[in-house]
Each structure stands twice: as structure tokens, then as C-alpha cells.
Amino acid sequence: MKKLLTLILFAGTTAMAQRPVDAIIKEFKNPRGKEVLVAAHRGDWRNAPENSLAAIQYAINMGVDIIETDVQKTADGYLVLMHDETIDRTTTGKGKVKELTLAYLKTLYLRNGAGVPTTHRIPTLEEAMLVMKGKVMVNLDKSYKCMEETYAVLEKTGTVDHGIFKGQVAPAVLQAEHPAVIAKALYMPIVSLDDSTAAMTMHTYLEQLHPAAFELIFQRDTSSMLSALPAKDCRLWVNALWSSLNGGHYDDMAFDDGNTKDSWDWLLSKGFMVIQTDRPAALLAYLHKKGLHR
């Protein structure tokens, strides 16, 4: 019964007016902002192939604030959206992205979530940024190894302030490897709260680089760090995608079981004010009802 009621509630979700990206950026950079921001994981991949231009546009139409994309580099140096190192799972082709040319990749079709070929093609990062320009921020996952090339695309498309670069490295390593990019672009450290050095890592980042947000991951919800998170200093980002990222407080507890108390409510109670989700329409409806999203 709970599942049925949840599905009925979320089925009524309608598209929301998209606000200018400047307003989203301002809210993202405000650690004391009262609005919870919603990030759509790989776009709206339930209704279009993941990392496709359609999945991006559908998520924009919903009214999300941030879209997560995955960046990979082709054999001839182009940046494309692809989660896996290979194209086997998500396209009609086979092989490693880094060993294939863009021209070849553009001959292929993307598969949907059920593995069925569609008419959608693999987009370049440049094509995707032009679709998202002025509308949403962009979580540039997997871009750490090609950060300079990714930054160049953002610069070319006039979207530098839209992008959120990220990585799970010590502050000194980041400053040594990518000093030019982090001097100009947003960077979000990824920190595992299960790591004994988590507190020191966050303290050093806050002291040296003043990040606008931390992406925090944790397998256990008993971590002592949860009671001492630096919410007053920056935004705290959590991935509600599956249980190993959030101590078992994940999306489908809310969507499938109607149990928001132990999923989204719990995450909010810990100070998380950016939630990356595989259920963007449902999460937006939930937050809107609570007065936590415009």
C-alpha cells in the first residue's frame, strides 16, 4: 500500500519553471542557504538513455538544479559523455572510449536503461554544455584526469561558472596537479567519512581552498563525523543513489516503500543540502511539499 500511494503521489509531478543558472550558483555558494538543491544522476536516465542530450533536457524540464555527467576522452582527444570506460553496456558498439575516435562513436546509438537501442547518439561535452548553458549547474564526474581539457570546453562555451569539478585527493595533490583550473573554477572535494583522516582532510581544505561544497560518502551511518560536519562553512552534498554511499539511507526507500523518514528525512537531519538522486521528479515533489525547494 505504501508503495502504491508513493507512486500515485509522484506520478502527479509536473514540470517546474526553470530558474536562471545564476540563481542556482548563488544558492550553491551560500552555505547558509535554506534551499535543498537537487542533482539528477546521469540526467533523467529512466526516460532517456543515461548521459544523453534528451536525458539532460528532461531533467532540466523537471526543474533540477544540477545535472551529473560523466566525462571520458576519445582516442583523438575529444571529450564525450560516457560513464563506463567501455561503450559496451550503453551503446550499440564495443570497445574502450580512449581507443575509439569521435567519428566512430558518432555512428553508434545509445541504449536505454533496459539495454534496447534508441535513436539517441553519444554527445560531446561541448554539445551537452550548450544544452545546459544558462539553465543548470553541472557535476563533472570522472573529469579529474582530463581537467584542463574539460575546463577548456567550459571556457569555449561560456559555462565555467556552471561546472563543478571534483576529486578524492589531498589538497596538496590537487594544488600540485591542477593549480590553474582550481584558481578559476569550482572544485568539490570528495571525502569518505569512513576514513580516519576525513576530519583533517576537510579542515585542510576549508583552511587552504575554501570549497563551496564537500561530497561526502559513508557506508556506515554510525560515523562520529556525522555529528560534526562543517555545514556552516559550506554545502554538504550526499549521494542518495544506493546504500553504500549514504549509510543505507537511499532513494528507493522513499520511492518504493514510501519511507522518507529513514531516507531523505534522515539525510536532511544531518545537514545535507545538496542531494544527488536517481529519482529527481520524486525528490523535487517531496522537497517542494516541505518548502525546501522553490
Could you name the key traits of this structure?
8-stranded parallel beta barrel, alpha/beta, 9 strands, single chain, 294 residues
Write the layout of secondary structure elements.
Elements: H1 2-11, H2 21-28, E1 37-41, H3 53-62, E2 66-73, E3 79-81, H4 102-105, H5 125-132, E4 137-141, H6 147-157, E5 163-167, H7 171-177, H8 179-182, E6 186-192, H9 198-208, E7 213-217, E8 235-239, H10 251-257, H11 264-269, E9 274-277, H12 280-289
Parallel strand pairs: 1-2, 1-9, 2-4, 4-5, 5-6, 6-7, 7-8, 8-9
Antiparallel strand pairs: 2-3
Helix pairs in contact: 1-10, 3-5, 5-6
Strand order of the largest sheet: 1-2-4-5-6-7-8-9
Q: How is the biggest beta sheet arranged?
A: 8 strands, parallel, barrel
Alpha plus pi helix count: 12
Distance separating the two termini: 29 Å
Query: Taking Cα atoms only, what radius of gyration do you get, to the nearest Å?
Result: 19 Å
Rounded mean pLDDT is 93
The overall strand count is 9
Shape: globular
> Into which percent range does the helicity of residues fall?
25-40%
- N-to-C SSE string, H for helix and E for strand: HHEHEEHHEHEHHEHEEHHEH
Fold and architecture overview:
The structure is a single chain. With 294 residues, the protein is of the alpha/beta class. It is built from twelve helices and nine strands. It has helices spanning 2-11, 21-28, 53-62, 102-105, 125-132, 147-157, 171-177, 179-182, 198-208, 251-257, 264-269, 280-289; strands at residues 37-41, 66-73, 79-81, 137-141, 163-167, 186-192, 213-217, 235-239, 274-277. Helix 1 crosses helix 10, helix 3 runs parallel beside helix 5 and helix 5 crosses helix 6. Mean pLDDT is 93; it is low at 1-14.
